[in-house]
Amino acid sequence: MDLRHLRYFVAVAEELHFGRAAERLSMAQPPLSQAIRRLEHELGVELLHRSTRRVGLTDAGRSYLARARRILGEVDEAAHEARRVAAGAVGHLAVGCVGSATYSLLPALSRGLSLELPGVDFSFRGEMLVPDQAEALRTGEIDLALLRPPIADLSLTVLPLRRDWLIVAVPADHPLAALRQVEITDLADAALIVHSADRRSVMYDVVLGLFHDAGIEPRIRHEVGETSTLITLVAGGLGVAVVPEPVTALALEGVAYLPLAQPAAHVDLAVAHRTDRTEPHLARAVSLVRRIV
């Protein structure tokens, strides 16, 4: 079925006049009349009563008009939807965030994405460790990840966002809280709270690397999986922690945040997605994340 013939018929049926319908369609009247004849021949029914004075719908024509309008409406809607998909204006994306990004970025990021891509349905998962994020990206459980490099997975595209300097979180009543800044050597005798080694946390390796570079054996008291738990334990006086600066967004009572003297002590933040994912709405979201962050 030629959709043009459907549109021609609807125009004539609504105008009940070949001349006005031809003008509406920006075409000559004879080709329009011939197209309607071909449609009737193809269907094997008469759709229009014709006379020298008027055009009217047959019973079959009235029935056909209702269906034709629905079909054309669905075709137009499908075309509109296809254009929106091609433009990256619709879809669903799940975003997984490492702990510090959960608190420092997620509120602004969720607002920004919702405002600029209102047709995309976003969901968010916070407090994810990098190995869990990589696995969730591979399986499709999440579509984007805000994570801490390095990540050795050639199936993932990892794009840098920013550099976060490291600071020290200490109980507010701890002797170290009186210092203007802290060196790693100041933490030699302190009980240390770190992210879990068993779950292959990037921060675990970074923090232990700082201690080992200073020739200090860290006194690890607690290993935790979530940044919020880590800071809660610091607030409870159970130890100190080396964390990325954005963790200060967790302004818990009983915690003091101090600069770390080592000028090169930092971790990077990146956005990652599966390399074989090329949907337009994913590309637009990545671009927005890079701009917002």
Automatic annotation (TrEMBL):
GO terms for MF: DNA binding; DNA-binding transcription factor activity
Please give an example of a GO cellular component term from this record. protein-DNA complex
The record, for PROSITE patterns, names: HTH_LYSR
Q: Where is the HTH lysR-type domain?
A: 1-58
Q: Which UniProt keywords apply?
A: DNA-binding, Transcription, Transcription regulation
* Highest taxon of source: Bacteria
- InterPro entries, per database record: LysR_HTH_N (IPR000847), LysR_subst-bd (IPR005119), WH-like_DNA-bd_sf (IPR036388), WH_DNA-bd_sf (IPR036390)
Q: Which PANTHER family match?
A: HCA OPERON TRANSCRIPTIONAL ACTIVATOR HCAR (PTHR30346:SF0), TRANSCRIPTIONAL DUAL REGULATOR HCAR-RELATED (PTHR30346)
Q: Which family does it belong to?
A: Belongs to the LysR transcriptional regulatory family.
Q: What is this protein called?
A: LysR family transcriptional regulator
